[in-house]
Amino acid sequence: MTNKVKEYRKTAEPIASSYHSDKIWQLAGFPASGGLTLIQELQRGLSVDVINRLNNGLNLSKKYVLEITGINERNLARRKKTDDQRLNPEESERVARLVRVMDIAIDLFDGDKDAAIDWLNTPAIALGNRSPVELLATETGALEVSNLIGRLEHGVFS
Predict the structure, then answer these.
(1) CA–CA separation, 139 vs 126, rounded Å?
(2) Which of 7, 16, 109, 158 is the most exposed place for a label (fewest CB within 10 A)?
(3) CA angle 49-55-89, nearest 5°?
């Protein structure tokens, strides 16, 4: 029995690499490894440049990203002028939430980023006729969107 457990562990894919596609996370400037490295980076605060990277890498407008993440544009501009130039941990977590949902939505549409963004902005009956992006303000809402994406991936009518 012990040998089977060891064999299984040898061939098991690490959770961090299977959890997200590194490319999207790297575009946003997150550590590709995820896990504890990601947690530490979020606690330290992401660079304010993450907003520009999302804009350039995923073609998400600055206004769109700020609105979804609840980051105030004036506060962002003020931070850019400081030595630290970091989002606070709560803002960083909200940016990570957006990237996480974008990642699985893009995967749902087989890599078609534009289709994923359209879907995220379209009201869904399964979400009480609210668009998925409207629910990203809270972790619970993001989980609901993630669950819906999971159901759609598995062909469950929602």
Answers:
(1) 17
(2) 7
(3) 40
pLDDT digits 0-9 by tens, 20-77: 467 788 877 787 657 888 899 999 999 999 999 988 878 788 998 999 999 999 999 9
Question: ∠ at Cα 96 (59, 14), nearest 5°?
Answer: 110
What is the spatial distance between Cα 31 and Cα 95, in angstroms, rounded to a whole number? Answer: 14
Q: Which amino acid is at 75?
A: N
Half-sphere exposure of 155 (CA within 13 A, CB side): 0
Q: Which two tokens stand for residue 21?
A: 């596609």
Tokens 């130039």 belong to: 85
Whole-structure pTM value: 0.81
Tokens for 137, please give them: 């303000």
- DSSP annotation string for 8-30: HHHHSPPHHHHHS-HHHHHHTT-
**How far apart, in Å, are the Cα atoms of 20 and each of 31, 100, 101, 120?**
11, 8, 10, 18
User: Whole-angstrom Cα distance, residue 108 to residue 125?
Assistant: 18
The tens digit of pLDDT for each residue in 107-139 reads: 999 999 899 999 999 999 999 999 999 999 999
